[in-house]
Each structure stands twice: as structure tokens, then as C-alpha cells.
Amino acid sequence: MDSEVQNLIKAKFAYPHLLTFPMLEEAFLCSTLRLAPEWLAMRISTSLNRLILSMLFLFLFSSQGWGLDPKLTRFTTDLRRQQLFQLTESYCQQRLQDSRLPHDLRLQLTVELARTFAQHATTVSSEQQTGLYQRAEELLTSYPRQGLNELEELYLTVNHHLLQLSKGEAAYWEAELYSTESSRSSAREDLTAVIEPASELISQTETWSKARTIATTSAKQSLLTYEELLLLQREFRLNVARTLLRKAQLERGAFSETEEQNNIEPSQSQLTEEYRSSTGLIEVFQKQYEHPDLYFDSHLVEAEWELLLDRYQALEKRLVLLRQRQLSPQIRNSLMSLEARSLLQQHKIVEASKKLHQYQQSGARSEPELDFLTIRAFLELANIAEQQQDQNLKTRLMENIKARLIVIEPGYWAERAKQLFQRKEQEINYGADLQEQIDQAATHARAEKWEAAVTAYSEALKLAEERNATALRAELLYQLGVAQYNLQSYEEAAKLFRQINSEFPESKVRARAHLMLAYCTGRSGNLAEAMTLLQQHREEFPSSATVQEATRLLADLKRGSREYATALPLYRELLDSPLADAKLLESLLNVYQKLVFEDEAVSIEPEKLLSLFRQDFPDALQPVSADNLQRQALIRLTIASLILAVPDEQNNQITSLLAPLLEKQNYNAPTFTELRPQLTFLYSRFLLDSSFSSQQFDEVSRLPVELKLSLYKYLVASPKDQATYHSLRELMERQLQNQKAELSPENQREFLLITLMRKYKENDSLTTLEELKQLELKLKLAPEQIRDIALRLTDSDDPKRLDAALDHWKRLEGLHQAGSESWFETRYYQIALLQKLGNAEEAKKLKRLTLLLHQLPANSAWKSRFDSL
């Protein structure tokens, strides 16, 4: 029978009143339908009875509302223990949707859901962990604390600390997997950061005392009973103790299967102090067998400390003591793991191998960690056999190890076993000196000492060539190429990656080498060739683990080359891949933005683009807040622009889309500054494309004054001969005139300048030239602005405007150095205007005086124009 089905059945019959929601009933029934017909025949009547009873419970709960559920924690804990995480998450989320939930039950369900996310994270890859931890963090930090009593506040705080401790534990195991100084340093920082506040909370006796008082004296049913609060406190102390242990193990590298030592070696006194702090938190639990989980877990933590401190006799006595108890398979495996690690640590390889082999042959259910330890012990035996030249034993051991590598459950321990096997196999086959050289090179690479890494990998490559290690040569060439790449020696690195592709067509690193060749080419500045290589990579290695990274890089390069229509399908291809992180979604959103606002949407029909956008961002629209303003603005502006471009879409959607962005606090926010021009352009189009109603007049009146100025500026710069345009522009100008005091001095000046230039441009009959001149003098215009006005006035047949133009050119003359190109321009227009106004003699006199006092440069653009006067 399928294990998942078995677990569902156990949960269903253990908690009939909890599994009553339609979704969970469906999950249960769908799972049971996969069972053999004969099993269903035996269970059908019982199942129906249970289902009827559970529907009665559902009716009772529905009619009375939910109350605190004392079985909830045990129910969700059991589901998590059986790794039914999705079922637990669905159950909690379904109940949290009930608006009738009292706040204490809502708090209980929120915490259980966060715990489920956190425990689920321990069973997935590091890439998936981040999202689950974020969801748990958001649940606990966003829960409203106002109105919580001391017990509820402590319950929420402790569970938040437990989440942080869980993240620290995950960082520890990740550091042990990658075994790099940077990962260990990062994990040490993470562990230290979570230990200190958690330890401080443990020592706050008054906080715990107040919570205990509520748990024991509350008139109504409290969130936790006294016993449940005590268990929570003990669980918290146990987790802090374990985290102190992980920090010490990490600093000493005690759990690592490699011989490499860390740069930071803790002193014995420091270890002893941490040991006392850790065990002091949990030693009392070792005397309380009434809580088996706490009892065994506290013993296991102290046993780990004894192993870390090389106290082998104490560890052996503890293992004997614990084995006298009734043990679960999980605890039995943990004890075997401790014993095997102790023997390996004491270099008792043969004894460790025998015990592990016998344990697994005894019929006990093994775990990946024990499989890993067996592989580790057998590799050590194979190394000894190689040294003793016992090829028969070595061959049998290596065959056994390879078989174990095939059947070991995929995951963390399988990855560590693979790494260890690769390293030890090389040492056995090619000699310890070559492996030592490779380890030294890897150490330099992890420390980012790339020059030393290049030297060490080059030496290792020579040894590999001497010993005909073909497969190893390809790997070393690749690592040498990576080191050269990090030294920014892109041409040298490219040569090595090309060598791999030409000489080692069957190598496992060929796909990675081909991808790195594309990176080198791009870094060298040849982006076109890099894109060609990446496209070749997608075609030549379609099933490789590197193809998604190549697609991502190709999409980024296409976007950087402004080939947005080509980049779009590449990004969309990655949406269901592990690379679909927040950064990729931002890149995809940016591509949609560019297609919409840089007039390249012609290559993709707006209807199709809008449909694709809605597929890619189905739940993108969220209430706008200060935290998500920039992202929401991008999304809303993109959708609104596409709606405007699609004839069949309802433009009234645009009002609701843009309304939050038009609010003053959002429009004036610094994060929105870069997007204001897009909003101005889009909102102007929307207003101009609409029939301008009285309601829209009211909407425009309520806009932020800064947006009105931007709209007015846009309208003046993009004139249209239509009634809506003139109505809107006049409305903007009138309202800005009335609200001028609300503008900053800079914006006031900009408004007056735009108005001034518009009046000159349109020959506004409502304002006299003298009034405009006074406004000019008040604004203290720059020379180029005066010149712009002068040119507009010059292009006229109205004598008054021509006189005003002459005055402007005279003012400009005084602002330029005599004899310069700009100065000659002012004199030219003065002479031309005098002629046009009928003052030929004065014009002739001014021309003669100009050319007499100042000589035009031979290559001056004004020479021929002066000759034509």
C-alpha cells in the first residue's frame, strides 16, 4: 500500500472531526481509491460510518462557530510527522478563511500553519526552502499583536524564535553540504544571531510567570493549559540547546567527513562553556520519561556534545542506557548513527563497517544518513585495501558502494554521499598526492584566492595527464577554466572550455564548459557571439541541467540588447523552473514594460500581449502600500497601457487601476519618481481618448497638484486639435493658477515658464506682450530660453511681435561675448528685423558697424547669411 495513502487513512480515522472539509474529504477519497479493491471491500462500511459521523461534526461546528480545539496541535503534529505537509497547509488555510473564528483559535491555526511551512522547508532543496521560510515569517510577523494577553504574546513570540532557530539549523546543514569557508562563516553568523535573542527570552522569568498565571487562573478556556505551556517552554529550551551544539559543531567541523580544518578553531574552554550552556537547558528533561520525545531528544543532544568533545566512554554508557528503553525506529537509527560516527572518529573503520552492515542486514528500517555513513566507512575500507594491494576486496567494496549510491534516497545525504564518493574514488584510483593537490586547489578556490587556485589546478592537471586520468582531466580543465574566469582572464578561460568541448565530447562537464564558454565570450564584449553560443547550447543540450541557466542568460542578453519581443518567450519558458525567483519575475515585468512603453509592441499584438501578461501575473494586482508601491505601479501601468491599446477592452478598468497611484502620498513617494512620466503619458492618453464628462472634471480636480503640473506640461508639449484637449488644458491651467501656492518654488517657476512659452507660441490674445515681458524679467530666463522666445516672435508678420523680437535679440546680445558665433547670430537677426520693419538705413548702418569692428571666422555659419542681407 502507498505510504501516503496509509498516512492519510491513519489521520482520517484518528481525527474524524477534524478532517471534515470538502477539500480534505476529496483528498482522502481520491487517495483511498488508489487502494486494492479487496481492501476497500473490508473497509467500506467503516469508512461510510466515519464519513457520516464527521458530517454531523461539520454541521455542529458550522452552526455553533469554532472554539479552541485542544486536539488541533496533536492533529497537525501527527500530520507533519508523517510529512503530509500539503494536507496540513490546506487544512489550516481552509479554516483560517472562516470569518467567525475567535482570535485565539485564529492564532493557534496561524502558528500551526507557520510550523508546517518551517518543517516542510527541512525536507526540500535550499532553493525551495527560502519561499517556505518567508511564508512562515510573514504569517508570524504580520499577525496583529494588539489586544493579545501575556500568554498569547509569549506563544507567538516563542514560535517566531522557533522559526528562526529552524532557519539557523538549515543554514548549518547547508554549510556542511557545501563545506566552504563562506558558507560556514555565513551559517555561524546566522546561528549567533538567533541564539542570543532566544536565550534572552528563556531568562525572562517574569514573562513566563505571567503566562503561567493566565494558563492556570483564566476564567475561560485559555490558549494553552499549564501543561501545554510547560511543554512549549521545554521544546524551546531544547531547540536553543541544539542550536548551541550546531554552532560548536560548525566551528570545529566535527560532522564534516573531510579532513579539512576551519580557520576558526574554538578553544577547549570556549567549547566547555558552550557545552554547559547547552546541556544546562535540557539536563532536567533526561529524568522525565513521561515525555518520551523530550527525554530522547535531550539525551541525543548531550550525546552529540560527548562525541564533539571526544568523550567516547561517556557516549558509550549513554547509548547502552538508552537502548534499554523502548525505542522507536527513528531513535534506534539515531543511536546507530552516533555509534558509527564515534567509531569512525576513532579510526575504528572495520568495526564501524561491520556494525553498520549488520544493523542494515538485521531488517531495521534504514535512513539516508545511515546509508551515507555506510558508504563513508566502506570507502575508508577500500582505501585501506588499495594500500594493502588487495584488489579483490577493493573491487567488491567499490561495487557495493556504487550500488548503494543508486538506491540511496535522493536528497541531502545522497548529495553528500556523491561528493564524498567522487573525492575518495579519485584518491583511491589516482593516488593521495593528486587528491591532496586537488583539495589544495579547491581550498584556494573556496577562499577566492584565484591565482593560487590556477597554480594548484595546473599542477594537478599535469599529474592527471601523467596517470592517464581522462575523466579527471576534463573536470580539472573545467575548474582551471573557472579560476581563470574569476581572474578575468576570459580568453585563457575560453581556450580551456573549448578544449573540453573538442577533446572530451562524452564528459559530464561538457555542458557546463559550453555554458562557461558563452559567459567568457560575453565578458569579452562579443555579445552577439555569446547569444549565438547560448542558442546553440539550448539546441545541443536540451536535457542538461544547464539549459535553464543558458535560457536565463540568453533572455537577459536579449533584454540588454533591447530585443524585448525575443526575450519575452525565453523568460516565460522559465516560469515553471527552479529559476523562477523574484528577480526573474522582475525581469519579465520589465520586458512587458519595455514592450508597452517603448513602442515595440507592434511586433506582438496588444490583445495577445495583454493575455500573456494576465497568464504570467494572475494575482499580480494587490492593494498598494509603501512596501509594494514600485512593483504595483509597474504592473498597473503596464495593464492600463495594454487596455488602452485593445479596442474591445473596457477603459473604465483604467480608473480603478490608476486610482491608487493618483493618491498624493503614493504619487509623491520617492520610489515612484521614475514612473511619474509613464503615469502622466498614460493618464493623458486615457483622458484624451475618453468623452470628457463632468464626473471626469471632478476626478481631475482631485489629482495631486504635482500631477496636474505634469499633465499640463505634457498637454502643452503635445497639442491636439480636439475639444477634449482644449477643455482639459484650460482646466489644468486654471486649476494650477489657483493652486500655485501649493507648488514648490521650483514647480511654480516651471508652471509659469510653460505658460509663458505657450502664450508666445500660440500668440495668446488675452495677454499683452508687455505683460509677457514683465513675466520674463520676473523669471530671469536663461539665454537659450530668451533665444527660443525671440525665434518664435521673429517668425511673424505682426509689427508688435517683430518689435518685441528685436528687443529680445538686443537683450541676448548683451549676454554673449562680442565676436562669438552666438553674438553674430543676435546681430544678424537685429539687422534682418530692422529691414523687415522698414528701417533700411539703420539696418545698413548696424551691418557695417558689426563687420567693421568684428571679423567673421572663415568657417562661420553666419558669413553667407550676412552676405545675403
Task: Please describe the topology of this protein.
Layout: H1 3-14, H2 22-32, H3 37-64, H4 72-81, H5 85-96, H6 103-121, H7 126-142, H8 150-178, H9 181-202, H10 205-217, H11 226-252, H12 268-280, H13 292-308, H14 312-323, H15 329-345, H16 349-361, H17 368-387, H18 391-407, H19 412-430, H20 432-446, H21 450-466, H22 470-486, H23 490-503, H24 510-523, H25 527-540, H26 547-560, H27 564-573, H28 582-597, H29 606-616, H30 629-645, H31 652-662, H32 664-667, H33 676-689, H34 694-701, H35 705-717, H36 723-738, H37 745-762, H38 769-779, H39 783-794, H40 799-813, H41 821-836, H42 840-853, H43 863-868
Helix pairs in contact: 4-6, 5-6, 6-7, 6-8, 7-8, 8-9, 8-10, 8-11, 9-11, 11-12, 11-13, 13-14, 13-15, 14-15, 15-16, 15-17, 16-17, 17-18, 17-19, 19-20, 20-21, 21-22, 22-23, 22-24, 23-24, 24-25, 25-26, 26-27, 27-28, 28-30, 29-30, 30-31, 30-33, 33-35, 35-36, 35-37, 37-38, 39-40, 40-41, 41-42
Count of helix runs:
43
Report, as a whole number of angstroms, the end-to-end distance. Answer: 104 Å
Low-confidence stretches: 1-6, 8-67, 258-264
Largest sheet: none
Describe the structure.
There is one protein chain. Helix content is 74%, strand content 0%. It is mainly alpha-helical and 869 residues long. Helix 22 (470-486) packs parallel to helix 24, helix 24 (510-523) packs antiparallel against helix 25 and helix 26 runs antiparallel to helix 27 (564-573). The radius of gyration is 38 Å and the shape is elongated. Mean pLDDT is 82; it is low at 1-6, 8-67 and 258-264.
